[in-house]
Amino acid sequence: MSEITDLLNDYSKEIKRIIDENLSTIIPNDLQEASIYLTNAGGKMIRPALTLMVSESVVGGKEGSLNSAAAIELIHTFSLIHDDIMDDDDVRRGVPAVHKVWGNGVAILSGDTLFSKAFELIITSDKTPIQNNQALATVADACVQICEGQALDISFEGRYDVSEEEYMDMIFKKTGALIAAASKVGAIMGGADDKVISTMYEYGELIGLAFQIQDDYLDVVGDEKYIGKPVGSDIAKGKMTLMVVKTLNEANEEDSQKLLKILKDSDSSKEDIDVAISIFEKYDSIQYTHDVALGNVNKAKELLKILPDSEAKNMLEKIADFVLERDL
Q1: Distance in angstroms (rounded) separating the CA atoms of residues 301 and 132
Q2: Which residues lie closer than 8 Å to 253 by C-beta, 6 or more apart?
Q3: pTM, rounded to two decimals
Q4: DSSP code for 92
Q5: Max CA separation in the chain (angstroms)
Q6: Which of 98, 130, 212, 327 is deepest in the core (most CB within 10 A)?
Q7: DSSP state, 308?
Q8: What is the dihedral of CA 278, 279, 280, 281, to 10 degrees?
């Protein structure tokens, strides 16, 4: 874990330098400050790190992929800012959300600025026009999928008949698509062939799914001081998670109605959350959620066999494990 954390910290410094340089010319000052605010607040920067690791693993080095990696982080940050506005969340990365500091107007504009700067960074990368265009197309596709995923998530509110297939599609688009794009862009900018590029996209897709599913799992079994929110927060908000989907699809009428009552209650108590967790346990939904995440990670690691042996390949294996080991 510490090895990965140290590597992420090293990559973050390089990514942050490029982001700072490219946002330093934004005017007026409040827009510049709002745009750079969340990148100063921390975050592991796993997505841009994947871009650099994959680029190194295909023997392309990381230097030519730094702009694209920074672009991936800007897209991620843009999506967080807009998500917080839609959800009216107060805090992000331990600090007040952008719209809570500067208001909705400047927050929306700061997200739009990051979105635009991301594409500018890619198109000015020191790569061939074909590579730059492939990377642009990949990131643009991910942006559309992020929007689709967010819209699907909104459509699930108050819906309790969501199938596992629908849920997995939503979390891929909302969370996995950008992680898959980050891995694919690293392969593109690293000069890999088409087979490796598509394989790295699939690797990122599996990692992205595992990442979100692990969040579902940690909401129930995690330690509050590490996950940054009370255990059972998703239950209290009535959110559809993989364990909710599985339980509602399998529960008898009595358990189903009991769980639905808790999910629909806007003022669930700790006792209510404990009851919901006990229902999850009855239908083995907590272990199932963990097993699905683990299965995706193992499949992702298998795909790495296509790469030549290297330290970067080893790091890609470790980052896959890190997705499951974080914040337990």
Answers
A1: 27
A2: none
A3: 0.93
A4: E
A5: 61
A6: 98
A7: P
A8: 50
